Amino acid sequence: FPVTIGQVLTAAQMNGIGFWRVTTVTFTTSSAVAFAAGVFNADYENYRVILEFVPSASCNLACQVNASGTAQTGNNYFGNRYDLRAGAVVGANPGTSHTIMGANGATPAHNTLSMDVIKPAVSTVRTSWHGTWYGANAATFFDGGVTSAEYNVAAAHDGLTFTPSTGTITGKYHVYGYN
Q1: Which tens digit of pLDDT belongs to each residue from 25-64?
Q2: Residue 152 contacts by C-beta under 8 Å, 6 or more apart in sequence?
Q3: Can you tell me the distance from the alpha carbon of 120 to that of 168, in angstroms, rounded to the nearest whole number?
Q4: Cβ–Cβ under 8 Å, residues 168 and 103
Q5: Rounded to whole angstroms, how far apart are CA atoms 45 and 4?
């Protein structure tokens, strides 16, 4: 559809175009990174989350869905990740979170996660996510893989919480909405 300079578009009009940035947040030395309440909402059916971070120590990174900004800790997470370095599927079901990736803490570290969260704001659907992750430090360490999981209770969720198994993480995340 044609768009003119200065025109204000509705969410419904923007959905016809593609990905739209919802938020970008920078965090420093955090023991848990929680999205603000309402990041996932009815404006979009699905969301792309890109997380870039450096941990204070090598760790695993857990993911939980949020309701009203609070992480859901019930024993309702089902999922696995395929770890390329280990050459194996890693994961325990059910759990109180989903271990989404391994992360390297050696200097200089670079860890990324890109995943799609499917219909998190729909109360009649179980929130699920899938994506890829990568961690490296210079040329001495590489790990990566794929991840997928769901929160096995149909409920609306408005964000995510990422928690390292040890230490803290520093970085930023981007959230994009799409239909």
Answers
A1: 999 999 999 999 999 999 999 999 999 999 998 888 999 9
A2: 76, 77, 78, 94, 126
A3: 26
A4: no
A5: 26
